[in-house]
Amino acid sequence: MPIDVILLVLFGALLHATWNAIVKAGSDKSLDAALISAGGAVSALPFLAFLPLPQAVAWPFIGASAILQFAYFQLVAAAYRTGDIGLVYPLMRGCAPLLVAATSGFILHENLSPGALAGIMTISAGVLTLALEARHGSGRAVIFSLANACVIASYTYVDGIGARISGNAVSYTLWMSLLPPVLLFAWAVSQRGSVAVARHIRRNWWRGLIGGAGSIASYGLALWAMTKAPVATVAALRETAILFALVISVTVFKEKASIWRYVAGVVIAVGGLVLKLA
User: What is the pLDDT of residues 224-243, one digit of tens each?
Assistant: First the structure.
């Protein structure tokens, strides 16, 4: 992978860890997840007029992605309600690239080199070490996390293909971001009522705007990278976000980190280096 692609994917990983921390810190995780999705859509709107429309063949992928993103944000909120970020985040992000790596040859006909496959496995091993080390969590948290890993792998394929055939990965990303918040808030209003949802928006709109801008930028960088490098490789490198999540957990949430968390961080970093050398 070219160094510029690696650096931009790593920056996207930092943004991803940041918006997940915003959801974890919130008092109402479902509505905060919907707000972040909406923040991403608001951030996208000003740029749509300056970009070409995605190719017609990409629109079914945009629709499928919206449904998967709806499921993703719902499962993120459910997992963070029932488990610690040290368990949930690594499981969600660590299992997804393994699923992609195991199936990309069949689905995308991408042949990964032995070095790239070794890098993917190394990064995933480091991430999963963090999950196994975490002491807080429940069976439900594990189920939600593993289910979301499947959703992540699914939308990685959908959007990886969609971005490639759209003609413009940035335009695809921005248009893809518009529908999920509509679905999320429609669901929230049906479950909570419009008054409760409007009250939460008035009090926490800034969280959604900051987190949403980071979310859409993070995913846009990943999709752009998928047009320059194999999808499985980019998906694995993106999971270095767990390193940034570890720093945030210690410096912001004041969580105690055991030696195994730092060992896992080194393993993830080594995996990133292996990918670079592959």
Answer: 888 888 877 787 777 677 77
